[in-house]
Design goal:
about 180 residues; three-stranded mixed β-sheet
Length: about 180
Amino acid sequence: MILNTGSPDAIVMGLSASPEEWLDLPSVKQAAIPYFHRFSGGGTVYVDHNTLFATFIMNRNTLPIEIFPKPILQWTADFYREALGLGLTLVENDYTIGNKKIGGNAQYLRKDRWLHHTTFLYDYDPKKMKTLLIPRRQPEYRKGRSHDEFLTTLKPHLTKEQFCTKIADHLETAFEVSLTAPIF
């Protein structure tokens, strides 16, 4: 697993996303925010110093699950629910607290390997979020809500350090873990 806290301001889009469909391009250009596509699917996210990233990279035989999006998503949701203990739920393809999104996911699947990447909102700036358009295709539970009405953050629940420590501690209950860098 790879954990990372924060990044320079940028907008990251899924492999097939069109900037015209997902971004308020005049605002993005005026603010000089770089945007790019990742190699995996998933939605569009604004990342900055308050974004938490968690990525699982697994071989087929590491877990007794099928390499398909739904079983992987369910396994990761169960992992985060147990690790973080925040009442986290999986709704459609998002991690939520209550009916508000705290994390979005992207996956890349190969014959014998898979990657599951989550972008968690530790906190966010509503002005920055306005550079993202409300998507035409959206989860049913969003119900047309604005970003502010649809999103929530982890900040009221734990610190960035607690987030990383809880995940690292829970990893050790399921896997043999070797840290290659300090947790925080």
